[in-house]
Design a protein that fits this description.
Radius of gyration: 23 Å
Distance between the termini: 61 Å
Amino acid sequence: MTQGHGSTVDGVLRRSARRTPARLAVEYGERRWTYEELDDAVSRAASVLLAQGLTPGDRVGAYGHNSDAYLIAFLACARASLVHVPVNQNLTGDDLAYLVGQSGSTLVLADPALTGRLPDGVRVLPLRDAEGSLLARLADAPPYDGPEPRTDDLVQLLYTSGTTALPKGAMMTHRALVHEYLSAITALDLSAGDRPAHALPLYHSAQMHVFLLPYLAVGATNIILDAPDGDRLFDLVEAGRVDSLFAPPTVWIGLAGRSDFATRDLDGLRKAYYGASIMPVPVLERLRARLPRLSFYNCFGQSEIGPLATVLGPDEHEGRLDSCGRTVLFVDARVVDDNGKDVPDGTPGEIVYRSPQLCEGYWDKPEESAEAFRDGWFHSGDLAVRDADGYFTIVDRVKDVINSGGVLVASRQVEDALYTHESVAEAAVIGLPDERWIESVTAVVVPRGEVTEDQLIAHVKDTLTPFKAPKRVLFVAELPRNASGKILKRELRDRFSG
């Protein structure tokens, strides 16, 4: 193998394998991989991929549920200088065809149960659980012995969640992700002694790049789960096998709402990470009251920055529960107005970033890339406030701010007010077209028990300035979400705008 400086995604694993070869790296179901075994599997998988006729720079789709095979495939792509394209395993039809086609994926690695959804003519190699799958071929494949990838090579097209428009493929380099891993390790206090569970989809940047890969870098033992199943998670915590967990607010809400949440022995859980969407303050307060010794970390960012940009640590929560914290090691951020000028502390504006963690732009979308990267800064689309101590608070997505009668209303503030009502299980606030108000503040609520529209409107008026209260409350059985837990407000606006 041609040796380089090793500042690559697959190099993260290689170093841990040389440092602690016999330590258990990954558990998935009945399978166990030491660091040495995992590194060897990645090398053999890289050879399997190249034997399919792929060449460096080719895009390889990954369409599967959580598994050890999914992780091995990603690292094998990295080692073979291929570009990994993670695809939401819930996508079907035109949405799935768009990602496979727009990325130009030459081959798709897929769970056998999902292959029937793929567009006709797409080359498929099963990831696992099938004869001739990537996992099944490892034993007969030689270890990879080709050139190392270069630090500035593309390693992944990380598609945005598509909550406001068609997904865009953020072009991530080895250099960007390795910088992000170090930022995550330092900001989130990750260590080899932690016992993390990885239950959120690995196709999503938060679980893969903020937790699983950084934890492999420090040499921890990682349990990969199919999904964030409360019974399984609580059992693992009680057995002393898991003490660290990342989950979006929707999952924490679900765990806190379980009938056994107050009675299970969860004292072994030491680190709780939340992010991917905004955590309602009332929910966080309930969690902290139930588990006062649990250290909470708020992780914020977006796909284009790898995705971690800011962290609110456990010793920083008091008095600022609505903050997403301060920038991580390799991120610089400002809050600017529409002209790109800094606004005073305490004034809302768009948060912009400069960082070696940033993507190189969007795959085959030069106009969108030019729009996002202006004057040397990446424009995030998030509306934020910075205080004098450098803490950021996300007010809203710029596109989710509601213009009601010429007055701007932040949907998050109204949502937090709704969550303080005992009969609100979940809530999303959107603006709907209105002849009088331009946009009408509208709450879409999943109720818990009996509650009326008038009661919730009155509750918000008692909590906030009355003009911010919803004009309407719509009750639904569930809110639409992507696999990372983000509420798809675009879908709600489309559904109720008629």
